Amino acid sequence: MDELLLSIQNLTTEYHTDESVIHAVNGINLNLKKGGSLGLVGESGAGKTTTAYSIMGLLPKLTGKIAQGSILFENKDLTRLPEDEMRTIRGNEISMIFQDPMTSLNPILTVGDQIAEVLEIHGTADTHAALAKAGDMLEMVGIPRERMHEYPHQFSGGMKQRVIIAIALACNPKLLIADEPTTALDVTIQAQVLRMIRDLKAKLDTSLILISHNLGVVAQVCENVAIMYAGRIVEYGPLREVFSRPLHPYTEGLLNSIPRIEIDKERLSPIRGMMPDPSVLPRGCIFRPRCPYAAAACATKAPHITEGSGRSVMCLMHEGVIPNTMGTGGNHA
Amino acid sequence: MEKKSQALRARRPGARTSKKQKTAFQEFWRRFKKNKLAVAGLIIVVIYILMAIFADLFFSYDFITENQISNAFAPPLTTAEIDLNNGNTAPHLYILGADNFGRDILGRIIHGARVSMVIGFTTIAFAGIVGSALGAIAGYYGGKIESIIMRGTDILLAIPNILFALAIVAALGPSFQNLLLAIGITSIPAFVRLMRASVLTIKNQEFIEAARALGARDFRIIVRHIMPNCMAPIIVQATLGIAQSILSATSLSFLGLGIQPPSPEWGNMLSDARSYISYAPHTLLFPGLAIMTVILAYNLIGDGLRDALDPKLKR
User: Fold this and answer.
1) Most-buried pick from A129, A149, A210, B247 (CB within 10 A)?
2) What residues pair up with B68 in beta bridges, in sequence order?
3) Would you say B245 and B119 are in contact if contact means Cβ atoms under 8 Å apart?
4) ipTM
5) Cα separation, A227 vs A235, whole angstroms
6) pTM to 2 decimal places
7) Interface residue ranges in chain B relative to chain A, Cβ cutoff 8 Å
8) Which residue blocks in A62-126 are alpha helix, DSSP H?
9) Is the peptide bond before A107 cis (omega within 30 degrees of 0)?
10) Is the CB of residue B157 less than 8 Å from the CB of residue B219?
């Protein structure tokens, strides 16, 4: 049995605003093995980034709050660690790559200084050695060492994202969280950056959580995939199996929204409707309002997680409460 | 066609290095230079600073504080005998004339520049450092700390600068240190507000979040990531602030609460001379001109800096 690096249990994260409580993440469970890679997929507002921020301990101080659950990282509960200890983990053992490379670099520091900074913060190297290591890191992400004395505005978007990857990997972290690392990039650069993340992950033996709304991006990099919807993980399993045989109607809907060259279709079938307001979640199954297979029971009975052969799904059809009509197209077809 | 592509290829590596050589400072200087008034202001200020530094080479302090009553009100460009304190006399050319005690006005202006420049720089350095630090703390942490700092600033702002400085000097007694303190304190609020406003815009940017994700402490984030990004408006304010504090210092001296005679200071020169405005207008004119040119020069530089540092005007 491989050793678990990260184990999230029943994590519930809320944002408290003056008017309401926003239930961003509602009791999710996730396990990540050492060296494993996990894709976190869902629409905007599904709670992907909030999950990442919960792990990093970067939730906004005044509003964000972990209401329940634990995040075990190497058997330390990150939700209970004091800020001092958390700081030694951030950037050192768990790194994060942000969405927009254009704004994630400080415009007035050279890229070399910014890579060296993370090494200085964690006392891995003195100033001189840190700068040398920064050069090495730049070369590792395919940027000539000489360019370390240049400023972010002299780099293209793809190169900036590579610099950010270099910063994230400088301390050789055990876990890398990439939050939509390619969303802001040109399509031509996306594949390049993804390949780099995958190769470096293998080379440095880093575990990876890749957050994306794009199934295609996750497909290129991850072994396992978790589909998030309205703060819950509705389906989890090995990537190939989930893609070839989705168990949850939402996953099926996502897959149907992707154009496929081998299937002759006049129109794509999008998922109807919108994600529920996270401050007032519906009773019963959260996906019911949009679900083509919804039955009467779905409105009152909330589904639990059904597990089996390495996969899990949160749907009443798999609990045997309502008949499994997956694949038939459901009521709306 | 082929030639062109060859030329392009040949130029490529060089093209980047030539672009690289243009540092941020060169870029700034290029834009500052375009503003001729600002450059004129800079030249005037440099002249005054040089005068201040090398004042003793032109006139000794003893000479310009010593009365030569027989030469009182000598008009500009007159040569008169001055008493050398050893029974001898020597001719001296009064380029800008002499004041009511026969002291050389040019010499007093040059030595006065020293006082004004020292006041301008030290008060603004003090106010800039204290004000920026307070503003950064207020902007970054928010909440109660912010309320306390900002309300304190509001209180300072509610009292007219000169009145507040007057009150401090009146309470502590007129001396050079108290003058610096009074003007320094009254200059703080502008920096607090400016810094806080800039920090508020910078602190929500993604690279600050990224720095936090790297495990950086608040102190490092503020000092290394936020404050340097807020420097442009602070530099402009500092330049304009120097003009303001020189003006305050001369005003206080004019009122007799600043630099005490016989020490030369532009404000107290004006004060001494104002009784003789119709009889010997040059005694009033030249110190007044000195004040005016310096204030004008600093304001011109400030405007030039504002334009040159404004990212919106970047081309």
Assistant:
1) A210
2) none
3) yes
4) 0.84
5) 5
6) 0.81
7) 19-20, 24, 205-207, 209-217, 220, 224-225, 228-229
8) 83-89, 111-121
9) no
10) no
